[in-house]
């Protein structure tokens, strides 16, 4: 990650902070940056339900921010195919529905799950709808961004269906932009599962 986007950087104030975030750099929470992947958790749909990343020790985890009304939404089928092809070998796919990009995930958690199941055959885990950028970003994406910069050395997630691959030992292998299809991840997944 470039030094200009490190999580230890002092908090920017006022307009400077606004502009800093708009160009793609964020002040990432220091406490999350200091955690291991296995210290993280994600809210699940429903009251007081959590997904603990510690449950995935020894597995390869693919994290994706998702949306149901996006040009990349057909990637759900590819993600489901990865889930089906590799789950018995140790791949876990987790979708994080997010409405921060063009309002393309407007539904509530129940509507999102129904759409994903009925229209795309999704049965991999979907977390509770959450932010992946900004002050209210979920801690999984904050952790990913603290480990590796994105396009142009910035930290922010640029659009729906960005992906991150986590190794069996809880290290970030890589971040992928939306244009990288699930099928194109197979070589990296195969290597991580080996």
Describe this structure in words.
The two termini are 27 Å apart. The chain is α/β, with parallel strands linked by helices and 194 residues long. Helices cover 28% and strands 16% of the residues. The protein contains 6 helices and 7 strands. 34% of the residues are buried. A 5-stranded mixed sheet has the order 5-4-3-6-7. A two-stranded antiparallel ribbon has the order 1-2. The protein has helices spanning 14-22, 30-33, 75-86, 109-120, 139-147, 186-193, and strands at 41-43, 50-52, 60-66, 91-97, 125-126, 163-166, 172-176. Belongs to the glutathione peroxidase family. Pfam families: GSHPx (PF00255). Keywords: Antioxidant, Oxidoreductase, Peroxidase. One of its GO terms (biological process) is cellular response to oxidative stress. This is Glutathione peroxidase.
The main sheet comes to:
5 strands, mixed
The helix content is 25-40%
What is the H-and-E element order? Answer: HHEEEHEHEHEEH
Mean pLDDT: 86
What's the number of helices? 6
What is the general shape?
Answer: globular
Number of E strands:
7
Strand content: 15-25%
Please report the distance between the alpha carbons of the first and last residues. 27 Å
Classification by helices and strands: alpha/beta
Q: What are the low-pLDDT stretches, counting only 5+ consecutive residues below 50? A: 1-13, 15-20
In the sheet with the most strands, the strands line up as 5-4-3-6-7
Radius of gyration: 16 Å
GO biological process, one term: cellular response to oxidative stress
Pfam families: GSHPx
Family: Belongs to the glutathione peroxidase family.
Active site: 70
């Amino acid at each position: 990650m470039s030094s200009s986007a490190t999580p230890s950087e002092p908090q920017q104030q006022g307009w400077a902070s606004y502009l800093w975030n708009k160009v793609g750099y964020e002040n990432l929470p220091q406490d999350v940056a200091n955690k291991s992947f296995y210290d993280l958790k994600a809210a699940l749909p429903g009251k007081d339900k959590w997904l603990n990343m510690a449950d995935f020790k020894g597995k390869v985890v693919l994290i994706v921010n998702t949306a149901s009304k996006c040009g990349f939404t057909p990637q759900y089928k590819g993600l489901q195919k990865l889930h089906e092809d590799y789950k018995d070998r140790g791949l876990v796919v987790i979708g994080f529905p997010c409405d921060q990009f063009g309002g393309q995930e407007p539904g509530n958690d129940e509507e999102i799950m129904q759409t994903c199941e009925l229209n795309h055959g999704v049965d991999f885990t979907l977390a509770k709808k959450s932010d992946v950028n900004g002050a209210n970003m979920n801690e999984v994406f904050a952790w990913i961004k603290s480990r590796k910069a994105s396009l142009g050395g910035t930290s922010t997630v640029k659009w729906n269906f960005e992906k991150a691959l986590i190794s069996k030992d809880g290290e970030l292998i890589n971040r992928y932009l939306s244009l990288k299809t699930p099928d194109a991840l197979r070589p990296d997944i195969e290597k991580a599962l080996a």
